[in-house]
# Entry
Amino acid sequence: MSLEIEKRFINFDYNEMKGILSEKCDHIGSFLYTFTSYKGTKPGQSIRVRDEGSKITFTVKQKNENNYDTEWEVAVSNYKMLDLMLTEMGISKRYTMQKFREIYKTKNGNSEIIFDHNPALPPYIEIESISEDELLETIKTLNLKEEKDFSARTLYYDLYGIQQERESDCLTFSTAEDVLSQYITKNKTDFLEKLNSQKEQYL
# Structure
C-alpha cells in the first residue's frame, strides 16, 4: 500500500520535453499499454487490471480527503483470467482502454515520468514520486507550470466535444474511430488526422 503522489501536465512542447528528459532522466522503455477499469465496491474506489507491456498488474485505488489516492498493487501473470475472476465475483467492468506509454525515471530513481498517448489525444505527462518534495523538485527540473487536474475523458470533451459519460466501450487505436465518431461534435478532421498518425506509429 502506498500514496499515489502524482500530477499530470499537458501544456508543454513534446519535442522540447523529450530533449530535457533524454538529458536529465533515464529512458526505461516504450510500450503499448492496455488496461481494464472496473466499478469499485465502495465510493471513491477504482479497480484496474493493467498490461503495462513489461508486466501485468492488479491495482485498487481509493480516493482520500488529501490530494493523493491510496494505491494497492500486485503483479499477476494472466490478464484474461483475472478479468474472468473479477466478473465471476460480480465486479462490473466499466471500459477497456489502450494507449502508448513512454517511461522515464529521474537519475536518483525517486520520480517516474510517463508520456501517455491516448487514441486521438495529444501526449500528456504524468509524474509520480515517492514524496511531495520529490514531486515538486521534478516539476521544477522539467520547467513545468502548475495546471488544473484533468483526465483523458475531459480532454476528449474539450478537444472534440465528446461527452464525458458514455456507454462502456473498448477504446483502442484500432476501435477509436468506430467507438467515438458518433459523439464527436467539433474538430473531427483533427481527430482523424491524429488517430491515423498514431496508428502508423504504434500499430
